[in-house]
Amino acid sequence: MTVIFAVNLLLSQLVTYSVPINLNSNWNIGFILGIVLVMQILTGLILSFNYVAIAPEAYYSIAYILEDIHNGYMYRYLHSNGVCMFFMFMYAHLVKGLWYSCTYLPLSWYTGIVILMLSYAIGFMGYVLPYGQMSYWGATVIINLFYWNKGLTELLLGNYSVNSSTLSRFYILHFILPFVVLVVIIVHIYYLHLNSSTNPLSVVDSYSSIRFAPTTLASDIYMMAITAMLIVCQLSYAVITLFTGDSDNSILADPLMTPLHIVPEWYLLPFYGTLKLLPTKLSGLVTMLVFVQTLVQTVEQRNTATVLSLYNVHRTYSYRRVLLIPILVTLGYLGMYHLNLFTTQVGIYVLILYLLIGITSTTCSSTRLQSYRMA
């Protein structure tokens, strides 16, 4: 009976599942994210066979994997470039949700934000594990954001600075959390399939729909082949230099020498740009929390009408959602470069605009909640 239930569940979600007929390649990104996540788990499992979570042996274990393990370099660079691919598709998936889905599939959006936050945590901890110069000081800066709570800081570090205890903690969490993400992804897909997918023109109740297989499934496989070719090109020729990381991270961490600049991985640059623009660590932490809150509250701008397709033939986009994308891109660019007077002024204006969006989103959510209570 269990086997029959599993087969029926698989058929209902991958074969007979009804989707709108007018989906485009934006709807393939979620499938690609799942494939890349599985690749990350498998390559991470292989790397964990030879990784040692002790400083400075962690650095030398990475060198051992690269030089002495058969195809070790391939697994290592596939894992490090795979996380960049994962976040690239994650951001594309986020933009697609902002444009098309977030106001119509709120439960999918909420679970997606949980996946994004867990992915940030996993990516940051994985970045620290090689015990390179940039990893060490990046972890020092980020964890010391909680300087106002010394107990929490010491709990995260295991001591007063990044050391073997920190690597052990991060290694265990970096190994376990991807499986937690898999569970949340199952919930995410459940809420998505609960009301069917959206589409570029209308809402979930499309009159023209087809089965998921074979047309949409074939489109997913085609997109997966393109992604595989992109990964091969990246591993062979490093066509996207942003994914290669900072060269200082190839140097063994030196607690006594601060690097000239601290640049985290590119997918964390919007946060780092925010920290650089603000005078104190606490203000930067609060602003990053506002960033998360704004993403959560964005979904509350949805229309409360029960039948939307009667008049929503073409989508009307909220200015809040439209402005979020260039704001985050601008903050990311500011995180890459040294600040001067002009870039600081631009960054301050962008932050003010972002905070206004967060405030108006919260006001919109409160108004909507009050209207529900009155009803």
From TrEMBL:
Molecular function terms in GO for this entry?
Answer: metal ion binding; oxidoreductase activity; quinol-cytochrome-c reductase activity
Q: Where in the cell is it found?
A: Mitochondrion inner membrane
Q: Supply the alphabetized keyword list.
A: Electron transport, Heme, Iron, Membrane, Metal-binding, Mitochondrion, Mitochondrion inner membrane, Respiratory chain, Transmembrane, Transmembrane helix, Transport
Q: Name one GO biological process term.
A: mitochondrial electron transport, ubiquinol to cytochrome c
Gene Ontology CC annotations of this record: mitochondrial inner membrane
Q: Which InterPro entries match?
A: Cyt_b/b6_C (IPR005798), Cyt_b/b6_C_sf (IPR036150), Cyt_b/b6_N (IPR005797), Cytb/b6-like_sf (IPR027387), Di-haem_cyt_TM (IPR016174)
Domain Cytochrome b/b6 C-terminal region profile spans what residues? 202-375
Cofactor: record remark: Binds 2 heme groups non-covalently.
All residue ranges annotated as the Cytochrome b/b6 N-terminal region profile domain in the record: 1-201
Membrane topology annotation:
Multi-pass membrane protein
Q: Where are the transmembrane segments?
A: 28-53, 74-95, 107-129, 170-191, 221-243, 322-340, 346-364
Cofactor needs: heme b
Per its database record, what is this protein's job? Answer: Component of the ubiquinol-cytochrome c reductase complex (complex III or cytochrome b-c1 complex) that is part of the mitochondrial respiratory chain. The b-c1 complex mediates electron transfer from ubiquinol to cytochrome c. Contributes to the generation of a proton gradient across the mitochondrial membrane that is then used for ATP synthesis.
- Similarity comment: family membership: Belongs to the cytochrome b family.
Q: What is this protein called?
A: Cytochrome b
The root-end lineage is: Eukaryota, Sar, Alveolata, Apicomplexa, Aconoidasida
